[in-house]
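dumping this here so i dont lose it
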């Protein structure tokens, strides 16, 4: 198999995995938000990748209105809260925030 075919096969498999995780998260009755830290040690760089409907209800937002936004864009006032720092430490350490 050529390298291009291997790469395409790997990309297609990864895309399938993303769709599977998206379906699972979307249908959970428990609220789940998935964040990416764009700049190390910078809580303001947290960007929302996924917010399932249950999380939207809990947070009082429409998921589609906050997806793709940084934590402070999507949730004004969050800069005064401890959660962005907690999320950042959990992402960087790989340890759960408890």
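and the seq i came up w/
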């Amino acid at each position: 198999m050529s390298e291009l075919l291997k790469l395409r096969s790997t990309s297609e498999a990864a895309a399938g995995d993303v769709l599977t995780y998206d379906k699972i998260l979307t249908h959970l009755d428990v609220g789940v938000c998935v964040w990416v830290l764009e700049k190390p040690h910078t809580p303001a760089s947290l960007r929302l990748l996924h917010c399932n409907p249950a999380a939207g209800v809990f947070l009082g937002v429409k998921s589609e209105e906050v997806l793709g936004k940084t934590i402070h864009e999507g949730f004004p006032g969050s800069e005064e809260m401890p959660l962005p720092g907690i999320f950042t430490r959990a992402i960087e350490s790989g340890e759960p925030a408890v």
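The mean pLDDT is 85.
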